[in-house]
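Supplementary material to the annual report.
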Amino acid sequence: MTRVETKESSWSFEQIYDEYKTPIYNYVYHLVGDREQADDLTQDTFLKAFRALPKMDANLKLSAWLYRIATNTAYDALRRRKLIAWLPWQDLDHEPADVEGADPQEIYGTTELVRAALRRMPQQYRAALLLYTQEGFSYSEIAHTLNIAESGVKMYLSRARQSFREHYRSLEQGGTVK
Amino acid sequence: MNCEQVKGHLSAYLDDALSLEERQYVVTHVEDCLQCQSILADFAHFDALLAQLPRVSPGPGQRERFFASQEYQELVAAFGGDGKGENSLPKSMVHLVPYTPRRIFLPGGRQVHGVSTSLLALTKWPLYMPNLAGKKKKSFWGQRLSYGIVAAGVLLVLGAGGLVSWRRWQEKTSHTSNTGSPVTARP
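Predicted assembly:
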């Protein structure tokens, strides 16, 4: 059993894994768009994290540090994959979000559009947008995670939103959703 | 601030990340600009859609696979070691907290993720600490001494070789001079 003390508290490997496996998996999945690959990359993320724990900057928040490793692991995988013609998304087994008063059919279609627009965005903007909207990270946490200046986060998010908007509108107006 | 400049600030405006002055410019402009109003509304709408995006979870067997994986076992083994105690903890690892097992460990122990708990119990420090702590880097003078010994050895071999060669050369030349001189008949 190994325990690690961060700024927040003391953790064991298993506690870290149990606490973060789902959010990291969700984040990685939305970055790479493939469930099987997200599985492997999540495992890789934790292995890398545990190996590097002794080198971890004690001033860094554990979550930001884990997400940084996850981001870099996903970037590496995307770089290796090269074919930006993304693999088909395999999330049809997931229920759409439970949105009160909304038509599930419509929500499901919207979800597909959102995912299709996401996977057309440049990866660094996609990461910033996901961290902000899905993970609820602050500008400072995004800066730590993506290893950029806090002032850069403002620019990243601005470009990310513009890029997402363009792709979403284009898909809505007849672009195909792969 | 013109329309293009305001467009560049709409995202930060939505996040309340503008200075008071910038914010005032944006508010004044957006009131009269339909295009910026539309972009701002889109940004807010898409943020909501992204936040509502269904979250996905790993498969049920992923945890077991992870802790039973060869990589994790190797990691645990690599971080295992023999435990050298508190004094061997490097200063760079002071943020790592010592772990004292609170369970009762039976002789022989049982297997927890492939590692015997009796071994875990013997390890006072976190599994990976002793091994890393035990990896002492050679000191500067230690390194210099080892380099000196190697250099002396090389010089010794070269010197001995040179000496042998020189003697053999001498023997050869003296032999040649002996055989080259006229043979005198014995009386």
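DSSP finds eight helices and two strands in chain B.
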